[in-house]
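Journal club prep — side note

Before the paper discussion, L.F. wants everyone to see what a predicted structure for a comparable chain looks like in token form. Sequence:
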Amino acid sequence: MNISDNDGVFTAQHVTGPTHNMLRLKIGRGAPQEFVVTVLPPIGECSHPGGQTIDEIALAIKAGVADANAALNTDYMVEAAAIVENDTRQRGIYEYLTRKILEKAAASEES
């Protein structure tokens, strides 16, 4: 997994052979707010039908934020999110990627 930060916009890329997911989050601090999950154009020609819907992904991101905030004693919130159209979108991955992004953000603030 690779996580990069570009001025508060974090991108996590998780590629494990046949599965691949990218999650981009613009994060801030404060009370949770509603955000849009933007679907970016496909990368490559693969197709993975039957994955999570955009609404399910948004809920997974919110769950990841809640988990990370509880564990880190922080108040991160998501302002915007993006995924790639032809990612595998398997259950659990977006919550996991969200937690990892917030862990990286917290670690960056400490250094």
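L.F.'s comment for the group: The longest helix spans residues 54-72. Keep this in mind when we get to the figures.
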